[in-house]
Design goal:
With 489 residues, this protein is an alpha/beta fold. The protein is built from 17 helices and 13 strands. The structure holds iron/sulfur cluster (SF4).
């Protein structure tokens, strides 16, 4: 007997959402930009927003003076990344996809309010008033909070896990995210952060990475990152990948590029597509899984161009396109925001939702970070809606440990926001004499999320005042950098 379908009320209601390329001509500065220009990668690169003057020229009278002052103050006093927003990303902020009542907010105060609230704006164009004034930084926040430099086995090559490595090929990206974990190295210096410079010539560093991999056949998996590989001339990247594929022990290669979303025009350029097809063919012949790992944090970022770029890469022969987002307050910290994003990725762009990382403990990131308890809640609430293979794991990147699924925590002091973790392998900086498997590693919740008693404990035990906290974070950041520079000397 046929059963009638029964509508059961669910906490989250799935709806297939038609992808939309927002109309860029709503911005006064792009009123005359044609579709041909928009799809041209050179036009996208030349027209990135890099400073307040360019943002003003683009926005005309849409934003009030208050916003520019707020942004400028942040650039001077808080920003750990310089400004770089490609048109493609700019165009997803306050668009017809996000307008609450189907109408563009009026220029001036209404548009400015919508811009302040926009999830993509919140992490690509952070302003001073976004940040916390009580605990702007966690007392244990540092540059290079994951200690990737400490684990460099060649300049830019982090060997943290037993069978896989991270190769930082270059220190630049087509877009700079305010929360970047690699704020110590990636991008231009800001008034607050003088960036670490890679000392070796690129060709020497890249050769040294291959030498290390040849000498260490236990490594089978290479994350080719930066920065963003979209900023490496394709012929140089392809030539290096060819040499990488000649190493018998390599079985998985992942190309890290947020630009698949931030500047899909790069991955749609004919030369790049042909190059990806050539290298994918070689990888398949060798039995190597070659994939792109991208970084999308909000459903509104998935547009038809992004979907086209992803599917073009799959057609060119990549094994998969996977997403590694970052979990951030005010950006994607609700079940609905995360599931909307996952379905947008999976439905039409064929991007596998793979991970969401908890935002790392870099300076001035407290307003973005969420507690471990909240991350666990989100993970629980997402299960069951997506196919298992497309259900992302929410992970905490625990310093000196690596990624741990949020429910893997050993013990958790929710009053003080201190979680304790263990691991089951040695990193490259731990000798056989060190018993790492019984050691305890810690991660900290943002202090403002703790109960009053926990916040008081931190005030008593760490710092006297919020100002002292800030000064301590700045000093810790400076000390962290000095240590990195000494290591390279
Ligand atoms: S794309 Fe990645 S490496 Fe580049 S700024 Fe953003 S988070 Fe950092």
């Amino acid at each position: 007997m046929a059963r009638m379908s029964v509508e059961i009320e669910q906490p989250y209601v799935y709806q297939h959402r038609e992808l939309v390329e927002p109309d860029w001509t709503r911005f006064p500065g792009w009123r005359d930009v044609t579709a041909e220009q928009w799809e041209d990668v050179q036009w996208q690169r030349v027209n990135c927003v890099k400073n307040l003057r360019q943002l003003r020229a683009l926005m005309g009278d849409l934003l009030t003076e208050e916003f520019y002052e707020d942004l400028e103050k942040d650039q001077q006093l808080r920003a750990t990344m310089s400004m770089l927003v490609p048109p493609q990303m700019m165009n997803t902020m306050v668009s017809e996809v996000t307008w609450a009542d189907g109408r563009m907010p009026a220029a001036g105060e209404e548009f400015t309010r919508a811009f302040y609230a926009d999830p993509v704006r919140r992490y690509m164009l952070p302003v001073f008033s976004d940040r916390r004034t009580d605990w702007a930084s966690h007392p244990y926040a540092t540059r290079d909070s994951l200690h990737e430099h400490d684990m460099w086995v060649a300049e830019g090559l982090t060997h943290r896990y037993p069978t896989k490595v991270l190769a930082e090929m270059l220190p630049t990206c087509p877009q700079y995210c305010g929360h970047c974990t690699r704020m110590d190295l990636v991008g231009n210096s800001t008034p607050q952060v003088t960036k670490l410079k890679l000392a070796g010539k690129p060709v020497d560093r890249h050769t040294a990475i291959l030498d290390y991999l040849r000498a260490n056949p236990g490594v089978r998996d290479v994350v080719v990152s930066g920065g963003d590989v979209a900023n490496m001339p394709w012929k140089n990247l392809e030539a290096w990948l060819e040499r990488l594929l000649e190493i018998e022990s390599i079985r998985d290669v992942r190309l890290a590029t947020k630009a698949l979303m931030g500047m899909p025009q790069h991955w749609l350029a004919p030369d790049t597509v042909e190059g990806v097809a050539r290298i994918s063919k070689k990888a398949r012949e060798r039995g190597v899984g070659l994939a792109i790992h991208t970084h999308v944090n909000a459903a509104q970022s998935v547009t038809p161009l992004v979907a086209r770029a992803s599917r073009t890469m799959l057609d060119a022969g990549l094994r998969d396109v996977r997403n590694q987002g970052v979990l951030m307050r005010g950006v994607n910290d609700t079940t609905k925001q995360l599931l909307d994003l996952c379905f947008a990725l999976a439905d039409d762009a064929m991007i596998t939702p793979y991970y969401f990382y908890m935002c790392d403990m870099i300076p001035f990131s407290e307003h973005w970070r969420v507690s471990l308890a909240h991350a666990q809640h989100l993970q629980h609430s997402m299960l069951g809606y997506l196919p298992g293979f497309s259900t992302p794991r929410i992970v905490c990147d625990v310093p000196f440990v690596g990624k741990r699924w949020v429910h893997q925590v050993d013990t958790y002091d929710t009053e003080r926001g201190i979680s304790y973790w263990s691991k089951n392998y040695r990193t490259s900086i731990e000798g056989e004499d060190v018993d790492v498997t019984s050691a305890e590693y810690v991660y900290y919740d943002p202090i403002d999320t703790l109960p009053a008693s926990g916040q008081e404990w931190w005030r008593q035990h760490t710092v006297e005042t919020a100002e002292a906290d800030e000064a301590a974070a700045v000093e810790q950041a400076a000390a962290s950098r000095r240590a990195s520079v000494d290591q390279l000397a």
